[in-house]
Design brief:
By secondary structure, the chain is an alpha+beta fold. The chain contains eleven helices and four strands, in the order ααααααααααββαββ. It has a four-stranded mixed beta sheet. InterPro entries: HD/PDEase_dom (IPR003607), HD_domain (IPR006674), MJ1020-like (IPR039967).
């Protein structure tokens, strides 16, 4: 598995050793990076979110963060022998678990090109068309259909009341919430936004993944003031609930501000 930095696991390294067969997912990642249609979608999906609605970034940087966190989270879970069910129940190979996660992380927000509201429901048909084009490059018809179904399931469940039915989908749901560091609400903040979502996001200085002791994964969130608790409790905790990962992921938020009296020093979920 990728060696962690002093700040934990944050970025997926294709060249490192992993707790899962990584050849197929690394090939998919190379394909994605060079695919003009996918890269254009990632740029275009930010127009409605940022330029028109003054919402926070949902473009290439968000996708990069979510995909990195998702693959690191998956790697840590696999290192602890957590059994994934999505690819397995479809009769796919273990290596396809990471492919499903990488594709779902990449395409989960393409529906923003239609509208921010109810975007997962727009992401599904748009991603379906993209998958129809790229999956035959890597799979025969039977496996392509099954991989596609699992990717679309994960996309649908990332931001809707629809509960994930696979751990692969649960990884996407949780990883999406891990993009919460300071500056990720930069645009609404600079536009004068002072709502609790914006202010609490400004309080989060770092999010990192670690091997856990009482659970396979510990998500450590460093925050500079107590406003960050809202972000952790209302975003990440809500995503973790009913994700199928509740027993595998422990969340620890630590107030790192040493310059003033701390109202909240540490919370665990």
């Amino acid at each position: 598995m990728t060696e962690p930095t002093s700040e934990g696991y944050r970025t997926y390294d294709p060249d490192a050793a992993h707790a899962f067969p990584d050849g197929p997912v690394n090939s998919i990642l190379e394909f994605i990076a060079d695919d003009a249609e996918i890269q254009t979608f990632l740029e275009a999906q930010n127009v409605n979110a940022v330029d028109r609605m003054r919402y926070n970034d949902h473009g290439p940087k968000h996708i990069e963060i979510v995909r990195n966190r998702a693959l690191c989270l998956y790697d840590l879970l696999k290192a602890s022998s957590v059994t994934f069910n999505g690819a397995r129940q479809q009769g796919l190979a273990e290596a396809d678990e990471a492919v499903i996660i990488a594709l779902a992380a990449t395409l989960h927000d393409v529906g923003h090109v239609v509208h921010r509201d109810r975007h997962p429901f727009y992401s599904v048909p748009l991603a379906s068309d993209i998958l129809d084009r790229i999956l035959p490059e890597f799979y025969d018809t039977v496996d392509a259909v099954r991989v596609k179904g699992e990717v679309l399931h994960a996309i649908l469940c990332h931001h809707t009341p629809v509960d994930p039915l696979t751990l692969e989908a649960g990884v996407i749901r949780v990883a999406d919430a891990l993009d919460m560091e300071r500056g990720r609400s930069r645009i609404p903040y600079e536009q004068g936004g002072r709502g609790i979502n914006t202010l609490s996001s400004q309080a989060i200085s770092r999010v990192s993944l670690h091997e856990g002791e009482s659970s396979p994964v510990m998500v450590e969130i460093a925050m500079t003031n107590a406003a960050g608790v809202y972000q952790v409790d209302n975003l990440l905790k809500a995503k973790l609930e009913r994700s199928m990962l509740e027993d595998h992921v422990r969340i620890v938020a630590v107030n790192t501000n040493e310059n003033r009296e701390q109202l909240v020093e540490r919370i665990e979920l």
